[in-house]
Design goal:
Distance between the termini: 40 Å
Number of domains: 1
Shape: globular
Radius of gyration: 18 Å
Number of helices: 8
Length: 294
């Protein structure tokens, strides 16, 4: 039986071997720990309790976590072991549970959350995703996920093909976000400044691609509203083997252009980043052995 979690509809029987994402039917985790570099409403004082899964259904040429794409790094976790790790993150003072690149592992994640909640897990859960998943998968997660953190990468399909090998990316991603909105609504932040429920849409601004950023922002306003909370990320960092147009950093002019366009459209709930965010210093370290790390 093939996998139906993402729009690739991969024919692989993952009980016998990995799919396009590099993942089998067993969860593989590359890092678990307190992560302090999410948006302020997510990182909070205690940081996010991040679980970085191994394997990804995109092949982004600029990915800062590229070592995880093929699913080869990390350790296998059972739902019971992941549940124990989530509870340990809670004990360490994490403000939430941040599930990073989780789509290939939805079944195991749901089982782990059930087990952890039965033992006292009460933190909000975040689905930190490239947005390339089916609406059926989103609906399957209702009741398990409180906060959705989709990264809308492209509107121009030529960019999606060239940079991520992702057929029909934009419509797939926007349909997924619409399903997330139906479940959880716009982002809700409490009096302490902590996100509790809803959707926060990310977009990484790419060099030489400002036209596409504008088109994405237009689409978000048209399909949702200017009440949507956005995070315009400036952290693109060229890879050593980067090719044009991704062989240089984003300029101040490009990023400011994106921010100005966003504000002029009427968005008011927008996180922006400083130029110093464009560095590998914020990329977590990954190894073959996973432990909970502060």
């Amino acid at each position: 039986m093939g996998c139906e979690l993402c729009p690739r509809h991969c024919p692989a029987d993952r009980s016998k071997g990995p799919g396009f994402c590099g993942a089998s039917d067993r969860m593989k985790v590359a890092r678990i720990g307190i992560h302090r570099y999410e948006e302020p409403c997510l990182a909070g004082e205690g940081g996010s309790g991040a679980v970085f899964f191994s394997g990804c259904n995109l092949r982004c040429v600029f990915c800062q976590n590229k070592v995880l794409q093929t699913g080869k790094m990390g350790q296998f976790f059972s739902p019971e072991e992941l549940a124990d790790a989530l509870l340990e993150l809670q004990q360490l003072g994490a403000d939430n549970i941040d599930l990073v690149t989780p789509t290939p592992h939805v079944a195991g994640i749901c089982a782990a959350i059930d087990k952890a909640r039965a033992q006292g897990l009460h933190l909000p859960t975040i689905y930190n995703t490239n947005a390339y998943l089916t609406t059926d998968t989103v609906r399957r997660l209702e009741g398990y996920i409180d906060l959705w953190l989709p990264d809308i990468k492209y509107r121009d399909q030529r960019l999606a093909d060239a940079f991520s090998k992702a057929p029909n990316y934009y419509e797939t991603a926007m349909a997924a976000v619409e399903a997330m909105m139906d479940i959880s609504g716009q982002l809700q932040i409490n009096e302490a400044g902590r996100a509790q429920r809803g959707v926060l849409i990310r977009h990484l601004v790419l060099p030489n691609c400002i036209y596409d950023t504008r088109a994405i922002l237009d689409g978000i306003r048209e399909r949702f509203s200017t009440d949507t909370c956005l995070s315009l990320m400036r952290q693109f960092t060229p890879q050593p083997d980067g090719q044009f147009p991704l062989n240089r950093r984003l300029t101040h002019r490009e990023y400011n252009n994106a921010v100005d366009y966003c504000i002029n459209l009427g968005f008011e709930r927008v996180y922006i980043q400083k130029a110093a965010s464009a560095t590998f210093a914020y990329t977590p370290e990954f190894g073959d052995y996973v432990t909970v790390q502060l």
